[in-house]
Specification:
about 0% strand; single chain; about 140 residues; mainly alpha; flat
Length: about 140
């Protein structure tokens, strides 16, 4: 069973959600970077923004991967989602290791950027999902 019939509306909804989430996370990245620059300096500003925006990239990759899997066969969404999650954890671990070794003075700012970026993204996603009219029954 494929989901090609409802794929177009799902992709359009996901694109609208991604634009909203990117906009809000970008706003948080800019505001947080400004605060980090004032409190700690320009390196902290870059670290905070990089942390927040890297979370947005990670979530976006997940949305695209799951949507692509859904276009092929809806049964692929769980394995692709789990594989994407595992690869993102490895990627974030490597980036965190790199930041720790190369820029240890801004590790806290990078971490706060990741946390605030993730909380912002998840808040936008939860709000959008609550308001979205999502068909959960396949109609003929």
């Amino acid at each position: 069973m494929t989901s090609r019939s409802s794929g177009s509306s799902t992709r359009n909804a996901a694109r609208g959600y991604l634009k909203l989430a990117w906009g809000v996370v970008s706003l948080v990245a800019v505001l947080g970077a400004a605060v980090a620059a004032i409190m700690t300096g320009p390196e902290a500003m870059v670290a905070f923004a990089f942390g927040a925006l890297s979370v947005a990239v990670g979530f976006t990759v997940s949305v695209w991967a799951v949507a692509a899997a859904e276009r092929v066969d809806i049964r692929l969404t769980l394995p692709v989602g789990l594989l994407t999650y595992a690869l993102k954890l490895v990627a974030f671990g490597l980036v965190l290791w790199w930041v720790t070794n190369a820029f240890s003075s801004v590790l806290l700012d990078f971490g706060v950027g990741i946390i605030l970026g993730a909380l912002t993204w998840l808040t936008v996603q939860a709000s959008w999902t609550y308001r979205a009219k999502i068909e959960y029954i396949e109609l003929p």
